[in-house]
Amino acid sequence: MFTTAPTAQTGPKNVLPKDLFGAIEALKKEMNAVILAHYYQDADIQDIADYLGDSLGLAQQAAQTDADVIVFAGVHFMAETAKILNPTKLVLLPDLDAGCSLADSCPPDKFADFKRQHPDHLVISYINCTADIKAMSDIICTSSNAVKIVQQLPTDQPIIFAPDRNLGRYVMEQTGLDMVLWQGSCIVHETFSEKKLVDLMIKYPNAEVIAHPECEPPLLKYANYIASTTGLLNYSQKSDRNQFIVLTESGIIHQMQKKSPNKHFIPAPPIANCACNECPYMRLNTLEKLYLAMLNKTPEITMDEATRSAALRPMQRMLEMS
Ligand code: 13P
Ligand code: SF4
Q1: CA 68–ligand 1 middle distance (angstroms)
Q2: Whose CA is nearest to atom 10 of ligand 1?
Q3: pLDDT over 90 for what percent of the chain?
Q4: Is 54 near ligand 2, meaning CB less than 6 Å away?
Q5: Directed axis angle between helix 252-259 and helix 229-238, to 10°?
Q6: Can you tell me the distance from the alpha carbon of 288 to that of 296, in angstroms, rounded to the nearest whole number?
Q7: Who lines ligand 1 at CB under 6 A?
Q8: Per CATH, which fold does 102-187+312-321 belong to?
Q9: Is 237 exposed, middle or buried (0-12, 13-18, 19+ CB in 10 A)?
Q10: What gap in Å lies between CA 72 and CA 289, rounded to an integer?
Q11: Which residue has its alpha carbon closest to ligand 2 atom 1?
Q12: Ligand 2 atom 3, closest CA
């Protein structure tokens, strides 16, 4: 709970300024900080970010920034990725509880057992995993480069793909290769209703269905275009259609609408009557928490050096292969 009343000067400061945007801009200069944000963040966080992108773009930005402080408006594995690439920089995450159901679906001890059962396999892990899983992997990928990375490997190379079974299945379809899939998934991308999607397609017959590959196969079969969030955003700009049904977390629609103000974007509805197409982890970050994280220089992402350096190797391989 935040307050605008003054508090004792010991402990973290929690007084919010009237002009939050202005105060964040001032802190950014004072700290030589950069704000990196994912498209699934609230609109006001997207609007104040220095760089807005998908997981690959954010990792690339984190790898090349010369800022002293990285304020990561995204989820824990993304901020951890920034720390893996920048061990000497201060990496802040506005809310440390901003986790990810997909990353949680792959516990390191169980994954180590799984790897032991497939000793000849190369491990490709989707970036939506913890630093411990990255440290056990040979190559990291994101939704925008997974197909490209698998296509660069010898066709007879046995592969474990973790943790997202839907992206894994999509990559198998696109490459024609077989892979052993870890059975993880994302609660947001599993939430979409096939029936409600079909109803929307009937209501908007000229709309294109654009989808993230984390969606379940029965939904993906309706998609006119499948790509990462950046891929979907770019497609929505260049397509000559004016209506799009968007099968991914609804935060991306803020950016789609900004880039194409005259087009109509319709969020695909979840099965239940809920806001389940908003990622509950991403949405833990708020502009207020972001400001306080910068003001107090906490919560900070830390990790032991052995894990970090082991996780760096497959990250570097990804960046080279992208
Ligand atoms: P991209 O950022 O690769 O589009 O993936 C979306 C996602 O689920 C991030 O958690
Ligand atoms: Fe994780 Fe899904 Fe949220 Fe992305 S949308 S951070 S994969 S829970």
Answers
A1: 25
A2: 128
A3: 96
A4: no
A5: 30
A6: 12
A7: 54-55, 128, 142-144, 186, 214, 228-229
A8: Rossmann fold (3.40.50)
A9: exposed
A10: 12
A11: 100
A12: 279
User: H helices of 239-286, where?
Assistant: 252-259
**Could you report the per-residue pLDDT of 272-297, keeping only the tens digit for each?**
999 999 999 999 999 999 999 999 99
Specify the residue with its C-alpha closest to ligand 2, atom 7.
186
Write the single-letter amino acid at 77. Answer: F
What spacing in Å lies between the alpha carbon of 6 and ligand 2's midpoint? 36
Whole-prediction pTM: 0.95
Residue 43 tokens, joined: 């609109």
Q: How far, in Å, CA of 208 to CA of 196, rounded?
A: 15
Nearest CA to ligand 2 atom 2: 186
- Residue in the block written with tokens 């899939």: 181
Residues in the chain: 322
For 87-133, how does the pLDDT look when each residue is reduced to its tens digit (9 = 90+)? 999 999 999 999 999 999 999 999 999 999 999 999 999 999 999 99
Domain boundaries, the chain: 20-100+283-303, 102-187+312-321, 194-278
Residue type, 83: K
CA of 5 to the centre of ligand 1 (A): 38
Ligand nearest to the CA of 191: 2
Report the CATH fold assignment for 194-278: Rossmann fold (3.40.50)
Please tell me the predicted confidence (pLDDT) of residue 4: 44
Q: d(Cα 76, Cα 97) in Å, to the nearest integer?
A: 8
- Asked if 122 and 179 count as a contact pair (C-beta separation under 8 A), the reply is no
Distance (Å) from CA 17 to ligand 1 centroid:
32
**CATH classification of 20-100+283-303, choosing from 3.40.50.10800, 3.40.47.10, 2.40.30.20, 3.40.50.1110?**
3.40.50.10800
